[in-house]
Amino acid sequence: MTNGDIFRSDMYDEVIRQYDEVAEMINLDPNIKERLKLPQRALIVTFPFRRDEYTEVETVIGYRVQHVLSMGPTKGGIRYAPDVNLGEVTALSILMSWKSAIVGLPYGGAKGGVAIDPRPLSRAEKQRITRRYTAELLPVIGVDKDIPAPDMGTDEQTMAWIMDTYSNFVGSPQPGIVTGKPASLGGSITRREATGRGAVAIASAAMEKLNKKYSDSTVVVQGFGNVGRYAALASYEMGAKVIAVNDLNGGVYNEKGINIPELFKHLAKEKTVKGFSGGDAFVGEILELECDVLIPAAVGGVITSSNAANIKANVIVEGANSPTTLNADKMLRENNVLIIPDILANAGGVTGSYFEWVQNTQNYLWKEKDLYEKLIDVLTSAFEEVYIIAEKNNCDLRTAALIKGIKRVAAAKLTRGLFP
Prior knowledge:
The protein has 420 residues and is α/β, with parallel strands linked by helices.
């Protein structure tokens, strides 16, 4: 068994393949190169969980992985999904390191998760899972150590339970222990919308480079969770036509454009986009619809070598983490599809989290308008820097973004030196 075998997964292998290619391009110090393939900390926990019926007690597995501790506290989401595993969480923590470095945040990457399907859980069951999982993480999380945030299967309420549990253990209110929490507990509305709106802001800047206007575009959004819905709303507000959206239960299509505010009202009542009267039901391959901009905003690995040839979008904006495999990425670029990679496109989430964390730790309030302006400024500036790197190195945006992120993390490692 090699050092990295315990972290192996399809996603981890993809992330390391990307990393190896870029590390070779930039002649990364071989010692640093090997070090950054592995996380500095990986915690696996198991704990008992009882459902509401209380007929039996299940054993649940949870994870928290911290990739780099050299640049400040670690930062990353917590996801609840049945297929959560150590390899996936490790891969996502590595991507979080690059992502934070790309936009210049003082964070290392982290990620966590619980291997359970959250959909059938009652509110009480989800609360019990969250509070016990938080208790198990107490040795490794903290306001200046590791700050969780929402991810797939978790939300503002989950973060509120984590904050309350942690605060009770330490004996004082600790709003800065999580980001993405409700506004009533010191959360930021900007954080909730940051990933989706940020992705659209970067996409708009990218299309200007192509002498096109985002406002004149047709947009398809795959996945209508937190990222997808606000990407759709931002697109609608900018004047683009959002012609199709979907979620786990179904999809909606309207070639004239979906009224997104009205869809939000439907979603509040029905908890799904399915059945919305402002369009036709859509049950086909939404990723293969003809459009100007495609935003995969659900889960990883949905665009592969088996369907890449059928993609008819001009621009792909990766709202989800790792939605495109490396083989598919190559095929799409050969077909002149511009891909805005996840480590840049969805960096609005961690940027919004940073602003929320700063406010919490300093007890300082910024207006939401100011936060949004700061968010867009950070993201568009990062895009411009990545674009310049891409032109200078004659490479795609994903490679350019990785060059920027990896170089910054490696510089921090080298500057701090080796202990002992």
